[in-house]
Every structure is written in structure tokens, then in C-alpha cells.
Amino acid sequence: MAVGVTFPDPYALIDLETTGANPVIDRITEIAILRFEGGELVGRLETLVNPARPIPDYIQRLIGITDDMVAGAPRFEALADSVRAILEGAVFVAHNARFDYGFIRNEYARLSQSFDAPVLCTVKLSRALFPEHHRHGLDALIARHGLTCDARHRAMGDVEVLRQFLDMARIRFNAKALSTACERAMKLAPRPRTLPEGVLEGLPDAAGVYVFFGDGDAPLYVGRSPSLRARVLEHFAASDRAGKQAELADKTRRVEWHETAGELSAMLLEAELLASLRPTHNRLAQGDDDVFGLKVVVRRRRPPSLQRIPLAGSDPLGWADVHGTFRNRKESDHVLRELAAAYMLCPRRLGIESAGSGPCQAYRNKRCAGVCAGRESPEAHDDRLLGALTSVSLKPWPWPGAVAFVEHSEHAQRSAWHVFDRWCHLGTASDASGFEALCANLPPRRFDLDRYRMMQRWLANPDHLALAMPLRVANGSLPTRGDFVDGSECGAQT
Q1: Residues in Cβ contact with 457 at an 8 Å cutoff, skipping those fewer than 6 apart
Q2: How far apart are the C-alpha atoms of 206 and 226, rounded to whole Å?
Q3: Which residues pair with 419 in a beta bridge?
Q4: What is the pLDDT of residue 2?
Q5: Does the pLDDT of residue 473 top 60, yes or no?
Q6: Among residues 61, 151, 195, 199, which one has the fewest Cβ atoms lying within 10 Å of its Cβ?
């Protein structure tokens, strides 16, 4: 490869359309390549490719390539020699180039062949040449530089845009500036050696959940982010440092991701995957089977005056005089010690100090009002205890009944209707008809501590509170089809 006064020579502009963003599991549906030598166009390849699998509906709508269009097209193995010939010895130039390069490498790997080429990314080239701008996607380049595109999201249409961009750059910048920018655009970003090419580059800038897998496909880590690409790349950008991040990056062999309709969808999916996969690098909560609350046993003379009430899977609407939600004894004892110190309560009567003769240790240290020493009545102590426990009681549900939270992602072409009541997740639908069916047959409320704490955090944001769509129900009962109001989905109040 010779480096000329402007761009490396020879070079090949390439763009692919695919069935998805993961080069390991998805396939190519269209290839377009223009090869240049000495600045002159010397080769052209443009063809649809049969991916030997269905193209997802939302991708068919986005790029306009349908299953029928590729049914009679050649598979990649029939094109492999032609693609290799036009790329031979050339710099591989593409927008977000490692994505396209990863797909090409993986296609050859499936044929037990290798493929290697120097790579120049035009996203990085644009950043180097125009650092004052923040957006460098193909649509941004078209708008910023007045480029034309006859077929956006089709392979040759996008390649022609890149051709115009390089022609514009030759005119606007001198040879030294262009050569420096090309060097920056060809520099490899930090990445784990164990991951296939193109995997990280295929990550979308959208909300979702990601999973890292290690040897033997063992789950290592589950995370979520409003930007999958930014968060996952952040993991691996830290891989040259010591510590847990470096260890995780070194162990990762595969990355799987799931785009979601929004942040709440990602939180719910993350909770499901943490519970089902039990990844080794996450801090995992214990199961909810033993979750309990505390109830004061009124007029009980002998300690302890608190009774543990099982809460897991029960209906919060039936929790009469139950305080707190605790996963284990350690959690409840910690809270009770804090309340005892703040309200001069007796640790022995609370059950956090073993019974014995004489006053409790806190009374001797003047931190107990003296129910254990006959200085106050059990009734007076427990009235104060009831007041103290209100600070840890279940937070009031902000609505009279069930509500729906609706999310939609244009990027992922996904929607979600999440229905909650009294902090319990009653179900999720992916479209309006599914939402109506869900509302017509809502399951009973079953308390889950993780969902409760998750929703508390999420609803602390006033913007999220405003998203709630209360369902029209009477007397606090769950909605039925008869509750639906014409003109609004599932009887939702508008």
C-alpha cells in the first residue's frame, strides 16, 4: 500500500446492508464497492446478497430490501472471490468502518478463510477534519456539506456519498492536513483482542441492556444504558487499567445486546436477566422468597413486640399495619438500630438485643427511655415505635389504581406498554392491541422487592411521573374490557 499526497493508494469504498447489527449472528443483504487506484475509479461491484435468513420487518422498512428481493440473489460464498479480488491490496474505507469490516471478516471466517486489510474510517476522518462539529453520521455529512444521495440506506447510494465526501476533502484541505487526518482515521481504538471484529462497532446509540459472556458462554456481566455503544465502549476503554474493569474486559469473549423501547424497559429487562443468568461480575441481590415487613403486636407485655410478616408475592393492598420491606434479618436489624437511637427505643423490646435480667445496655447508656426498667409502659413505648416505623413504611402509590407507562424508540422501532399497580408489575405489551388484551385480563398484584425499589428510583424523576397513564377503573378494582373508553386505548385517561 502506497500513501499518496492525499489518501492511501489504492483504496476501496465499501458499504453493506445487513439483517442486523451483530456480525457474528447477522448476515449481509447488499454489498457495494468502488475501487480507486491513483485517484481513478478502476473497479465496481454492486449486488444484493441472499442472507439465508429472514430480514427483520423493521429493517425491511428502514432500508427497503425485502425477503423477496434477496430470495434469488447469490449467497456470500458465491461472491467471495469477486469481493476479495476488488479489495485485494486496498485500504478498506467505510463509514463506521469496523462495522463493515467485521461483517466481511466474519463472512470469510464462515468459509474457513481469513481476511485482513488496513482500515480507514470516514467517521474518524470527518472528526479529524471537522473537530468543531459533534455529529459525524452519514446524514449529518450530507446536510453539512451539501452532498447528494439518490438511495439512502442502500449500499451504493451510501458509497456514492462517501465518494463525494472524499472529493470535497481533497479540495478543502492541503496534503499535509489530509495525510494527518488519514493517519488518525486509521488508528485502532482500544478493544479486547478476544472479541470478533465489528461487534463493538455494531452497537447502537440507543437504550438497552448488554451482556458479557466468557469462556464456555458463561455469563459475566449484565448492564444497561441509555446509549449501549457509549457504555460498552467505556468498559473496554478502561481495559488497559488494572482492576475489575480490566479483568472483565480480558475475560469477555462475546457481547450480546438488546435494544429496548426506553429506560424503563431496559431496567425491567436488566432485572430479568440478572435473575435468570446470575452473572459472576454483578453484585446480585438475594432471592425475594424471604422478603418480610414488620408489624407491631399491640399490648404485648413481653419482648419482642415486632412480628415478621412475609411479603413476597402478596398483594400490597392487603398489608394492614405492616411497616418496611426487608430482604433479610440483617437489613431490618440495621434499620431498627437506627430508629432505636433516634427515638430512645428499647433494643431488647425490638428484638435486636437478646433478653436478659435487668435493664438493657442502651438504658444504662441513657439511649433507651426505660421500658425494660419499668420507667415507661409498653403501650407508650410502642406508640413511639409506631410513629418511628412510618418513616420506613411502603411508599404510597401515587395513583388510585393501575397505570401504564408508554415508551417508544424510533431507532429500535420498538414500543412498550408497562402496567403497574401498587408498585407491582402486572405485565408489558409491545403494541396497542396487546396492551388492550393485557388490560382486559390483568393478573393479580404480586409484590417483588426489586421491582418496588426500582420503581421508587425511577419515579423519583418528575418527568417519569408525568408519563403515567392511569387506567379508568372504579372502586380500586382492576380494569376489565367494560371499563374501556371509546377512543382511548385500554380506557386510559388522557
Answers
A1: none
A2: 6
A3: 404, 427
A4: 41
A5: no
A6: 61
DSSP state of 483: G
Query: Which residues partner with 123 through β-bridges?
Result: none
Average pLDDT over residues 226-233: 86
- The CA distance from 129 to 136, in Å, is 11
> Quick check: bond before 10 cis, omega within 30?
yes
**Pairwise CA distance, residues 494 & 474, whole Å:** 17
Give the phi and the psi of residue 442 in degrees, each rounded to 5: -70, 140
CA dist., res. 287 & res. 281, Å (int): 17
* Distance between first and last Cα of the chain: 64
Contact 226, 263 (CB under 8 A): yes
H/E run at residue 58: helix 57-63
Task: Output the nine-digit C-alpha cell for 445.
Answer: 398484584
Least confident of 3-17, 111-125, 271-285: 3-17
- Asked if residue 71 has pLDDT above 60, the reply is yes
423477496: which residue's cell?
68
Name the grid cell of 414: 420498538
Q: Which of 492, 456, 451, 457 is nearest to 472 (CA)?
A: 492
Angle between helices 449-459 and 263-277 (to 10 degrees): 160
Angle between helices 122-129 and 155-172 (to 10 degrees): 30
Task: Kindly state the cell numbers that stand for 196.
Answer: 470478533
Query: Is residue 392 a contact partner of residue 324, using CB atoms and an 8 Å limit?
Result: yes
> Could you give the C-alpha distances from 205 to 198, 200, 225, 227, 320, in angstroms and in order?
15, 11, 10, 5, 46
- Cis omega (within 30 of 0) for bond into 74: no
The answer to whether the CB of 269 falls within 8 A of the CB of 209 is yes
CB contact at 8 A, 102 and 23 = yes
The Cα–Cα gap between 116 and 188 comes to 14
Contacts of 382 (CB under 8 A, 6+ apart): 296, 298, 300, 305
Gap between the Cα atoms of 359 and 375, Å rounded: 10
* DSSP 8-state secondary structure symbol assigned to residue 23: T
pLDDT confidence bin for 478, thresholds 50/70/90 = very low
Please give the Cα distance from 321 to 335 (Å, whole number). 17
In whole angstroms, give the CA distance from residue 278 to residue 297.
38
What pLDDT does residue 484 have?
A: 36
For 409-452, give the DSSP string: ETTTTEEEEEEEETTEEEEEESSHHHHHHHHHTPPPP---HHHH
Using CA atoms, how far apart are residues 423 and 452, in angstroms rounded to an integer?
A: 5
